[in-house]
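fyi for ur records
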Amino acid sequence: MEELKSLAKVSISVIAALIYCYFFVSRISPGKTRLLFLLPIFYLFALLPWSFSSIHFRGIAAFFLTWLGIFKLLLYAFGQGPLASPNASFPSFASIASLPVKYKQRKKGSPRADLKIKNPPRLSLPVKVLFLAAIVYCYKYKSRFPHEVLLSVYCLHLYLSLELVLAAGAAAARAGVGLELEPQSDEPYLSTSLQDFWGRRWNLMVTGILRPTVYDPIRRWAGSTRRARLLGIIAVFLVSGLMHEVMFYYLTTEAETRWEVTWFFVLHGFCTAAEVAAKEALAGKIPPPPPAVSRAATLVFVAVTGFWLFFPPIIRSRADVKVVDECVAFLEFFTDTWQNLVARIRLF
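which gave:
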């Protein structure tokens, strides 16, 4: 009940802040002055996640507001990004600013969105929900899992949870505004390379916000050479690592860090840059590996480096235990509610 009260307070605060941005700040010319008037909203969006005691609510609020929301408003300060459309209604502006969504703008000559493209079989959302429920149920026996198996389960849990959170955000945006949305992810387990995984499949909302805020400015500053492109890739991963450190602070509430998460993303940045350079150098000289091999190699690399650098801060802080406890409690609540509902129906 307390979390629902906090959710109501946070929602009202966000709506009030975005009314200020839409009706007042929009009248200020893009630039440093508009940025100055947005600074209080940056502070508010960084503060609001602490309204929640639940690690799930706090983490989601931090992702939606402190990361994506502030970065979108930062672009908006200079007349760029998804919030800069002059014809956007307030509901559209508010949903884009506060949810992990981007509205689709079809360009002339672009392929139709409803054309069918041949792809390997994909998991539907209901199947992902069932998989996540099965994982949460298995947590009752997690003390019997070998460490590597438990970390593998955490990888699946992270992926499925993010998919459902993004889907919920998209559903809220569609219900509120009803516009067509850009895809938020594209089945990352089908990735054939690190570039494919990070750039085209995993959490595309983050990719879409880091490109205009980090990659494009680096390219404008460093030029259009291959070296500038690789520098832009590494810079994007560095900023992503630093923002993940911030997200982990919200999750673990521990200020001390060994910078493992940052090193995880820096490592992937250098490896992705090396992969891009190798592809360009060897294009047409050696055939690419079979998709089954490249997919397995990509997922193994992501998982192993995640075991090494990504998950240790979560495990040391016991944030994983809190996540599991909250998930098990929610599953038990849902199961009990369903059983009571069925029992009442039988009485009638």
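The radius of gyration is 22 Å. thats all i got for now
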